[in-house]
Amino acid sequence: MDTNVSSLSSTSMPTQLPLNTTAFMNATVKPFSVFDGCENMIEAVLFDLAVQSINVIVGIPSNLLVIVILIHNRKEPSTSDIFLGCLAFMDAYFGAMTPLAFFNLYLWQRKEVWSARKFSYGVKDTSGPLFLSCICLDRFVAVLLPIVFGQLKHFKYRLGLAVLVLCLTFAYSAAKMVGGLPNFEKIFTGEILAAFAWMLVCNASILRALKKSTGAGKDEMHPLKKKAFKTVLSILCIIVFNYLPLVVMFPFEDHYSPDVFRCYVQPAGFAFLNISSTIQPIVYLSRLEKVPFLSDACIKKISSCFTQEKNQTPKVQDPPA
User: How does DSSP classify residue 21?
Assistant: First the structure.
């Protein structure tokens, strides 16, 4: 069973059934269906696609805006910008695949489109946790190992790590698209558990470093450490909200019938993961003091919709370096 089986990837292709125990069941082969096995239980599948519609309406523009901001700030980039850029691009790509899913459900019914959609689910499963972990690693080294951070500050190190993550992502996605691998979902579960544990380590370590740096005065926090802690804390919130429900859900698979788990439980659970393509760029944009190309009034309106903490900034000062 695949991991991100929400909506279209919840089907098991009839052409892949010979890989299982029902290899040569009957001479009659079921015609391909994007709802295969869930034709009478499509509510959760449609719910997941409805949630993903937010990625099309809000997520794609937000991710493109993040990419534009990163390009705009390329002369004075942050060391994590390459990871943020890759993550935003992957999320925009995943959101762009959602309309294809709707068309394939009710118009095309093509196996090729379904396979492409399944590949995009593999990208979503892997790229998010891995790139978020890379951002945490970068902040962790910057705060706790500043000397090492200075030695490894060159762009080539982060470029090499980003290429490695992309290779792992595409390898996982290709294997997911092909299907037929036993216990394949355990790879995803282990990945999320490892990423979640790493976020906890980052937060605990950076918080401890922040407390040590405050000294006698309460507000005398090092700006770099304070910014790093906010970054990692926001990433932890994303991991907890978007990824942890799936990790909690998988151990209870045996408590459900296979059809109920595949057609109801998994699509509903993966809706939390898929909406992260909107939450991640919104969280990044909400942390900015000034968004290029947008007026202050527009920034306040967007921030008030998604965060309640941005009400304190009626005036925006000079753009950050």
Answer: S
DSSP 19: G
C-alpha span between 54 and 276 (Å, rounded): 10
Structure confidence at residue 92 as a pLDDT band (50, 70, 90): very high
Task: Give the CATH number for residue 259.
Answer: 1.20.1070.10
pLDDT at res. 21? 37
In a domain? residue 320? no
Query: Helix 276-286 and helix 81-96: axis angle, to 10°?
Result: 140
Residue 308 lies in a domain: no
Are 321 and 224 in contact, with CB atoms under 8 Å apart?
no
Q: Bin 317: left if φ > 0, else alpha if -120 < ψ < 50, else beta.
A: beta
- Give how far the C-alpha of residue 210 lies from the chain's centroid of Cα atoms, to the nearest Å: 28
Domains: count for the chain: 1
Task: Assess if residue 154 is contained within a domain.
Answer: yes
Supply angle C-alpha 253, 93, 96, rounded to 5. Answer: 90
Select from 278, 244, 265 the least CA-distant residue to 95.
278
Q: Identify the burial level of 187 via C-beta atoms within 10 angstroms of its C-beta, where 0-12 means exposed, 13-18 middle and 19 or more buried.
A: middle
Parent domain of 269:
7-24+34-287
Q: At what angle do helices 185-214 and 223-238 cross, to 10 degrees?
A: 150
Q: Are 62 and 30 in contact (CB under 8 A)?
A: no
Residues near 286 by beta carbon (within 8 Å), at least 6 away in sequence: 303, 306, 307, 309, 310
Domain assignment present for 208: yes
Predicted pLDDT at 208: 79
Sign of CA dihedral 12, 8, 179, 253: negative
- Looking at 8-12, 124-128, 295-299, which range is the least confident one? 8-12
pLDDT at 31: 56
Token pair 């998604």: residue? 306
For range 76-91, the mean pLDDT: 89
pTM score of the predicted model: 0.75
Give the model confidence (pLDDT) of 188-208 as tens digits. Answer: 778 878 887 888 888 788 777
> Which tokens belong to 211?
């407390």
